[in-house]
Amino acid sequence: MVPNPKCEDGAGCGPWSAPKVRNPEYKGKWTIPKIANPDYKGEWAPRQIANPAFFEDSSPSDFTKIAGIGIELWTMTEDILCASRSLYHIKLTKLIYSRQHFRWT
Could you give the CA distance from residue 66 to residue 77 in angstroms, rounded to a whole number? Predict the structure, then answer.
């Protein structure tokens, strides 16, 4: 705060407070006026129509056996290289991996 040289000796300097003058027209905190609406039909709800194809799945977590997984990797960086691989079966995958990465004598 910057010191004011005029306020060092004189009165009237210090924290300001709003003047408290009564307002004869004040009626209290304002609230929304409630007006009766003769056309009110209740809380709105969307129209319900019949759906003959609707069914409820009682067991949504029961899936068929997963036969394979597909993964696709996209990159816009030139320095990253990725070789495509397909996993058919664990035994076949082990055989393919071992033939690609180990020397057979």
Answer: 33
18 pLDDT more than 70: yes
CA angle 64, 68, 74 (to 5 degrees): 130
- pLDDT score, position 87: 47
Q: For residue 7, count other CB atoms closer than 10 A to its CB.
A: 11
Q: With left for phi above 0 and alpha for psi between -120 and 50, is residue 42 left, alpha or beta? A: left
Residue 12, CA distances (Å) to 8, 28, 96 in order: 10, 32, 93
> Is the entire prediction scored with pTM above 0.70?
no
Separation CA 35–CA 63 (nearest Å)? 56
Q: pLDDT, tens digit, for every residue of 54-87?
A: 999 888 888 888 777 777 777 776 666 655 555 4
Alpha-carbon gap, residue 85 to 93, rounded angstroms:
10
